[in-house]
Design goal:
Helix content: 40-55%
Number of domains: 1
CATH topology: RbsD-like fold
Order of helices and strands: HHEEHEHEHEEH
Distance between the termini: 98 Å
Strand order of the largest sheet: 2-5-1-6-3-4
CATH class: Alpha Beta
Shape: globular
Number of helices: 6
């Protein structure tokens, strides 16, 4: 009798467990909901666990409780699947100089993130300069921060969204045509 009840309970619970495993994590749901609203000049930051909570009204922070590499993969896959935005990626210039002696795992992380970001152009800037750029953008544009459980300094991945269907070259040509059309200044 007990065995029959156990089997019956297992049969009833199994579909619920399978469904729970198929549902995205709450942070993934938030990324999926935010991405259609984000556009050119918005930022998505995938940050380490010590990244500060910002108080600017345009900054939204979400705790992922996930590995940074998993979050970077998910976000880049989502951005690449979108029809409207592409990523401009920035990383801290300090990261190549962080030794394992001071931050265990730094060398392994550098190899792993290089593999995840293979094929992307990455702009390396000092941390304070990236933070300043993000703070300036946050005055007018939304900044979406995904906080991870990584505990290695200078590992954040900063993604400035750019327009997917309008290239930097197209913008430059447009500005040149506009300048030529206005003629010489008198």
């Amino acid at each position: 009798m007990r065995r029959s009840l156990f089997v019956l309970a297992l049969v009833l619970i199994a579909p619920l467990l399978a469904t729970a495993q198929l549902q995205p994590a709450p942070w993934q749901t938030k990324v999926d909901a935010a991405l259609p609203l984000l556009g050119h000049r918005n930022w998505i930051l995938i940050v380490d666990s010590a990244y500060p909570l910002q108080t600017s009204p345009g900054v939204e922070t979400v705790e992922t409780s996930s590995s940074e590499l998993d979050v970077v993969r998910y976000v880049l896959n989502s951005v690449n699947s979108s029809i409207h935005v592409r990523p401009d990626i920035f990383m801290d210039a300090e990261l190549p100089f962080v030794p394992d002696a001071d931050a265990p795992g730094a060398s392994a992380y550098r190899k792993q993130i290089a593999a995840v970001l293979h094929g992307y152009a990455i702009q390396s800037l000092p941390h304070d300069q990236i933070i300043s750029n993000v703070a300036d953008a946050g005055k007018l544009f939304h900044v979406f921060v995904l906080k991870t459980n990584l505990a290695i300094p200078y590992t954040s991945v900063f993604i400035r969204l750019n327009c997917k269907y309008w290239s930097d070259g197209a913008e430059k040509r447009l500005r040149a045509r506009m300048a030529a059309a206005s003629g010489p200044k008198q």
